[in-house]
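Q: How would the structure tokens look for this protein?
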Amino acid sequence: MSLANQFAAYSAWRSRLANNIGELQSWLNHNELSDAQSDLRLTQLLDRLREDRLNVAFVAEFSRGKSELINAIFFADYGNRMLPSSAGRTTMCPTELLFDGNKRPCIELLPIQTRSSNSGVGEYKRFADEWTRVDLDIESPDAMQDALRHVSETTRVTPEEAGRLGFEVGGGEVELYRVGDDGLVEVPRWRHAMINFPHPLLKQGLVILDTPGLNAIGAEPELTLSLLPNAHAVLFILAADSGVTQSDMAIWREHICGGGMARRGRMVVLNKIDGQWDELKTDAEIDAEIQRQVDTSAELLDLPGSQIFPVSAQKGLVAKINGDDALLAKSRLPLLEAALSEELIPAKRDIVCDSTESEFGDVARRVRGLLDSRLIGLREQLTELTELRGKNKGVVEYMMGKVRAEKDEFESGLQRYYAVRSVFSTLTNNLFGHLGLDVLRQLTHQTRETMLDAAFSKSLSDAMGGFFAGAREALAKSNGEIGEILSMMEAVYKKFAVEHGLKLGSPTTFSLLRYEKELDRLEAWCNDHLNTMLSLLTHDKKNITQKFFEEVAIQVRRAFEHANRDAEIWLRAIMAPMETQVREHQIQLKRRLESIKRIHQATDTLEDRIAELEGVEKNLQQQIAGLEEIVGQVQDMLLPLDSPQLQAA
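A: Here is the predicted structure in token form.
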């Protein structure tokens, strides 16, 4: 199955999953089993599924055929090149291809001059007026191509301004950024581009990131710290005619497989193998030459040869447009697409399954616990009333007194529940005192001031180290509060289960480990990159260092924001079962007492009341069966692709 078809299948699966979860939400509302907490969690889950994105990044130095490869894999059905692709430098700025239905088809371009500020591209995305907008005429391929050439535009600036914007003039990139006869340097006109295009794959949530060369990556902190590490797949493109160059190696080590970045979903493409198609050589000789290049590249990149994919993107694109199956096979493009499908889509599906199972499973278990509690309470009522058959009034009075005493005992025990709520509130405040953004904001401010005053590289390095130490301390203290909350709730759950028979199970656990690992990744990157930069400290390097700190601070703040959100959800989830069970137990005790009162006062006959409760019991059993059916449908969709149950189906 092609990547396009497999991604379409994944999108269809995601839509069915969202429909089934929406069905549960509607069913809960219809049966009056929903509450604000469950409804909020299901709504957030559905929002995440609707906003789900599959991010694929293409990384290469100039002239490796990167844009042509994107055209060949994703846009051949369009019948022409979507991205400009020709000899030399084409895509001059990082470019995102995506679809946002709230906007018209267009290109949004961020001027290169915004690099002079410390704000990242992500911050600028919040301010539409900072971007230059060019509308796309999707009905005209020629007009589309003309509009898309904007990503190739350059401008000329003084060497001093080029340095401030992060371009090394006269350094290792001298062949790219050199001073011309007019005393100016040619640099990209745009810092970042976003192409909003209603292509079927982009509509389904695919986001393509096209990154242009080492200098652009190195000067944009957000690419290094966020966009590339968070991509579900990164395709690193080499050219068969040049092999692994020094700048290729720098990109690979510093931005793809270094700084704590995971290797999963990282693939290497050896492009332009059609340069080896020599009519004076046999097919076997050509294949042997290509294999030698694969082996050499694999050795230099420290990868198994199976992760290097030799292709001809240009011939693959031509073959797809012309329907030439023989040329397509010779281009070897289908082998790359198959590998991308087999690794990328299942990995993305696993991520969605894990997050869905956690949220959906909690809600489903909570509702099932509520229904089970109601059924147990109802059957206790039925047992009590059935035992009153043929009994005299004195027995009924005794039973009424017994239930009243049980009710009074439970309500006196609620004082402990209210005390738990009070302690829980105190511990929660302590947790957010450590995890809250105010602490991080103060830490960021102090670090920024220290870096501005720093005169030596060691001061900058120490300031960055202090920043991470402070962030880790906040997480460590937060983990201590989480452990205390969990221990308290475990004890309370057990006590209420033993004393009052509440079906509480075990409280949901929570960990900040994922955010600790995010700090590890960011600090590892800083140690690998900024320390090297600081050893060659100049005024411009200091500015770049401060710019990178601002992006690091944004990434850490984002991690803390997510940690706060997850902690809030966990705190509601850990208290909700107890609140629900306490409320339900109160209602059941009240109903039991009222039933016996009505029998005692002869306002209801015993048999009528028993028949009424048996009808309620039947309805509860139907609700449990209905819940199990919907939950079962969702759980079946969350099974691993290689599970026997799914394969049998």
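The two ends are 19 Å apart (CA to CA).

The chain is about 65% helix and 10% strand.

Upvote if useful.
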